[in-house]
Amino acid sequence: MEIIAHGIDLVDFPRIKEMVEQHGKRFITRVFTATEQAYAESNKDGIEKLAGRFAAKEAVLKLMGTGWRGKIAWTDIEIVNNPTGQPEVKLSGEVEKIADTLGIKHISISITHTANFAIASAVALAKRS
């Protein structure tokens, strides 16, 4: 596998908490899949988990060089945990089409939290020719 792109993002918890308080379920369902919402709801630090997922989605968009625009939906990027707890990226819709065009075969994601921030780093991998 060959590294073809990298993206990183930092999100502060108060920003996500404010969005949830101002826009409620509308914000949550626009940005997070049902699986991501259930994951956050099952944790005592739900805002922290949402912030981590938000940072991860932003990092993925940065490595694609697109940002959030056009036909891209936030839910085209889903961050799930595998059985050992490691986060994984699942793409669909417009983001999956863009990834295919760029030759991205896999995205490796890492998420970490501090007292007030979530940081995510995403690496796009392609199969060697």
What does this structure look like?
The chain is of the alpha+beta class and 129 residues long. The chain has a single domain (2-126), classed as Ribosomal Protein L22, Chain A (Alpha-Beta Complex), CATH 3.90.470. The protein is built from 4 helices and 5 strands. The chain has helices spanning 13-31, 34-41, 46-64, 93-102; strands at residues 2-12, 77-81, 87-91, 106-113, 117-126. It has a 3-stranded antiparallel sheet. α1 (13-31) packs across α3 and α2 (34-41) runs antiparallel to α3 (46-64). The longest helix has 19 residues, at 13-31. The chain starts with a strand and ends with a strand. The mean pLDDT is 94.
Q: How would you briefly describe this protein structure?
A:
By secondary structure, this protein is an alpha+beta fold. It is built from 4 helices and 5 strands. A hairpin with a 5-residue loop joins strand 2 (77-81) and strand 3.
Structure characteristics:
single chain, 129 residues, alpha+beta, Ribosomal Protein L22, Chain A, 3-stranded antiparallel β-sheet, two-stranded antiparallel sheet, 4 helices, 43% helix, 30% strand, globular
Total domain count: 1
Q: Largest beta sheet, briefly? A: 3 strands, antiparallel
Element string (H = helix, E = strand): EHHHEEHEE
Mean pLDDT: 94
Helix content: 40-55%
Radius of gyration: 14 Å
What structural category arises from helix and sheet content? alpha+beta
CATH-derived topology = Ribosomal Protein L22, Chain A
**What is the CATH architecture term?**
Alpha-Beta Complex
Spatial strand sequence of the major β-sheet: 1-5-4
* Tally of DSSP β-strands: 5
Question: How far apart lie the N and C ends?
Answer: 9 Å
